[in-house]
Specification:
single chain; alpha+beta; 2 domains; 4-stranded antiparallel β-sheet; about 20% strand
Length: about 200
């Protein structure tokens, strides 16, 4: 699915399919879709691996080049070992410090991390099973925006229009956020190796 297809899905859910009289512009829906994608990414990030060169005699790695980084899952150093050697690490800003293992010698290491999903004109990294969830979140945000816009406006539907939009949007967002809470890395029990200090 690409962004144009997702906008079409969101329009169907919003009952906004009259192309001659859209309530929401494509740019508005794209912004709401982007917000829902970022929230999904916090729970279910895109798995990524980067090869980074270490600096001889330094345990620090600059990870500012990890595009869209949400979290770092593991650091493998040195690479090519069987079984792989994963190191303990700490992060401060864009600097990762390898805490365990031998001091780096300038060779490469792998950083396994989670990144923000993409959804653009070319395609998407979002798993198909989460596309409807993103659409639901985008709908909720779009409806709440419309509720705010209709306050103090003359509406054919009467004075209850802003309240009805707010209730509808709040229900959509509550469903979206409840489903997000059941997903992802913050809800999983993680098994980790316990390291002994030397």
């Amino acid at each position: 699915m690409n962004l144009a297809e997702m906008i079409d899905v969101v329009r169907k859910d919003l009952h906004d399919e009259d192309s001659g009289n859209y309530r929401w512009a494509d740019e508005e829906l794209a912004r709401h879709i982007g917000r829902a994608v970022r929230e999904l990414s916090e729970r279910v990030p895109l798995p990524a691996r980067a090869t980074l060169a270490t600096t001889s005699g330094s345990r620090e790695l600059d990870i500012s080049s990890l595009s869209g980084r949400i979290m770092v899952e593991a650091v493998e150093y040195p690479i090519g070992e069987s079984p792989p050697e994963y190191q303990r690490f700490s992060i401060w800003g864009d600097m990762l410090t390898i805490i365990s293992g031998s001091e780096p010698d300038g060779s490469n290491g792998y950083v396994y991390y989670g990144a923000v999903h993409t959804l653009d004109s070319e395609g998407s990294t979002i798993p198909a099973k989460y596309e409807d969830l993103v659409a639901a979140g985008a709908c909720g945000y779009a409806i709440l925006e419309r509720a705010a816009y209709t306050i103090n406006k003359v509406n054919v539907g009467g004075t209850n229009v802003p309240r009805e939009f707010r209730l509808w949007g709040s229900e959509r967002l509550a469903t979206f956020q409840a489903r997000l809470r059941r997903l992802g890395r913050r809800q999983r029990v993680r098994v980790q190796q316990i390291f002994e200090s030397d």
